[in-house]
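Sequence in, structure out. Go.
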Amino acid sequence: MADSYGALIKTTTATTGTNDYVLNTTALTTAHRTPKQAVADGSLSDGDIVQYMARDTTVTGDASFELGEGIYTDATNEIARDAANVHDGSNGPGALTVWPGSGLRDIYLVVSPSAQSARLDRANVFEENLTVLSSSVARTIRVEGFSAAVVLKDINGAVDQKLAQMFINAQAFRIRGIDDAETGETVPGIGFSLATGHVGMGLNPSAVSTNLHIQESSTDTVPTVEIEQLSTGDAALQFSIAGDAYAIGIDNSDDDKFKISYASSAGGAVLGTNDRFTIDDAGIVHIPNNVMLGDLSVIPDGPLHVFRNSAGSVTANSASGIIIEDNASLALSILTPNDKTGSIFFGDPENAASGALQYRHSDNTMTVLVNTSTTFKFTSAGFEISAGLLRLNQTSTAADPTTGEYPVDGDVGVHHNTVSGNRFFVWNDSSTIFKVQMT
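Output:
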């Protein structure tokens, strides 16, 4: 009886009806019973006759059944008596067997009166094999037992059939894969402990000691967990305690950079605000201004160890704060515009620039500061000590030395006369050249 409604009633004689209401019988306490209620008056005992009374279609033949027998739906969804229990397969007698019919569903149960009006939408909504409709907050389906379980099996093809089990026991609620015999576990699945609420994925949640434990045993390189953003938002995680929060992930609005960001309130961290650490897609690491590095080590030779390759069996001095290591020639670069000065300062509590090594690009001079004063200066013309009082030089001309080669008061050097072959030690004293010939 495709797409029809009716009632199971207790009656003394089989009755055929075509109306919306069951005809009055001696066993009914109400003269007319609506089939929408799908109830039977009184209790049943062996020998009682139960009849399915249909709406929209006349029930013909012996449509009643006795306790111990079953009922089934035939190919056209008609309710029929299964006295010999032959329609329930090889699993033994069953109270109800539903065979695929031509309707949109096989079983449709209305379990609360106020949900009856929803039947008008049944052709567009309910296309499942079993539909339970309730408008109340009470339990709709209940499964009880020792380790109560529901098994789902894919029988689409004879090869590689899959079974899954959803069950609850005294320790946990779990969804897992099981074998064909339904006795062994093939995939641990997911579940949570009833005692602690801890969630386990890939393992029995009863053994989980943290709020979430994800476990796998494989040889592949696929990440265990993935957080994917399909729109314009960020793909991120947040860690919070009272008064502090950190977000970590990909900032979708800033060239997809990987970031660690901070907030001074729990749950308030947002990528792109108060960034503490950034890596772009070229592998360039950026640590913003006003962020103290602290102890940052690749290997434990110092607080900051920039490591490219091992230099061999060597350990940095224990006082080293910064270590740069490679197995080839290595350099430290300080890059500035061509009118600026690059410096390395040496400071103490009394003065942050007690000493320094500076290169000034505007006049291409290298200066050494000692006790905050310029003590040595290197130029392309020579070497100065104490702000120009002494310059060392080496010159060679076709004549003896003059102020042309040693123009600054205090210039000192050696000179070679390429014509005579004489060599001199030279000193400019108040623009007067003093020279001593060396033999």
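Check: Residues 192 and 199 are 4 Å apart (CA to CA). The chain has a mean pLDDT of 74.
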